[in-house]
Amino acid sequence: MTFSDWQQLAPAVAARTLLERVARLSAAQRRAVVATLASEEQLAAQFASAARTGPLGGVPYFLKDLWDVAGQSTLAGSTFLPEVRPTPVRDSAVFQVLRSAGAVLAGKTHLHEFAYGLTGENAHYGDCEHPKFPGRTTGGSSSGSAAVVSAGIVPFAIGTDTGGSIRVPAAFCGIHGFRMTPHHAWIADGFPLAVSFDTAGWFTRTAGDMQLALTALLGPGTGSGPARGCWLELPGLDAEVAAAFRTAASRLAPPADAATGAALRDGFANATESYVVLGGREAWAVHQGWFDRYAERYDPLVRGRLEQARKLSPGQITVAEAQVARLRETWRDYFQAYDFLVLPATPCAALTKAECTPANRRRLLSITAPVSLAGWPALVVPVTLSSGLSTGLQIVVRDANSVIVRDLLAASA
Question: Domains in the chain and their CATH numbers?
Answer without folding.
Answer: 1-253+342-413 (3.90.1300.10)
